[in-house]
């Protein structure tokens, strides 16, 4: 596979499905991944924020990687999120991912601890440098309180040839423009916030780490393709239908809400791992209104 092609297209941030007893449902995980690849997605990104990675144990993470590598084989790459409370464990996770057969890594900031560029840069360098796998840096300051600025990303890119991409989730589409201004085509840029996908592509992004794709894979792929092709009229029509759902990806309980959408469309269940709990009350009622309207007005592709 051309290294560049690893980052171009729709890559689901796949949710982690749980059985009734709270364990990971590996059978559904494999089926769900294949469903999204069948719909035109180009790779699978487990163990990110949407994958509830912070609630998973080390061995559970490795087991998820194994399931997906086996399920997808040569059809599509598995690119797990790598994050931990400690640098040493993140490095171990990266090396295990390579041994399992993952073909790339998404490098997240460390859980909980956020500080200055000296420490965050050292952490990211250690994980990126742990293997020769192609890496994508995940910048999500709203969630992780660590903001990799464009100049800092350029510094990491200069030090690590295997840093090939950035998942940009700062919520500021201008960051894509700023990174491109500094680095040209050195890095592939991917949108990490669902409700910024059309704007992100217009700014130069070539990939989408998507959330609502877990419930609407065909629509996600079609929207991406229309936006990339510059078909603004058709893209806008589909985007307007999709936006109320895509905005569910941008709120604190996005995991619960996306899993609720999955359950309502028959592509999963809404079980989450504590401390998360399923949404209830007015929040649930409002979400269900959005979901049911989308189902009732779902466009024919």
Automatic annotation (TrEMBL):
Pfam families for this protein: DHDPS
Active site residues per record: 138, 167
CDD domains, alphabetized: DHDPS-like
Binding site for pyruvate: 209
Keywords from the UniProt entry: Lyase
GO molecular function ontology, one term from the record: 4-hydroxy-tetrahydrodipicolinate synthase activity
InterPro entries: Aldolase_TIM, DapA-like
Family the UniProt entry places it in: Belongs to the DapA family.
Protein name in the entry: Dihydrodipicolinate synthase family protein
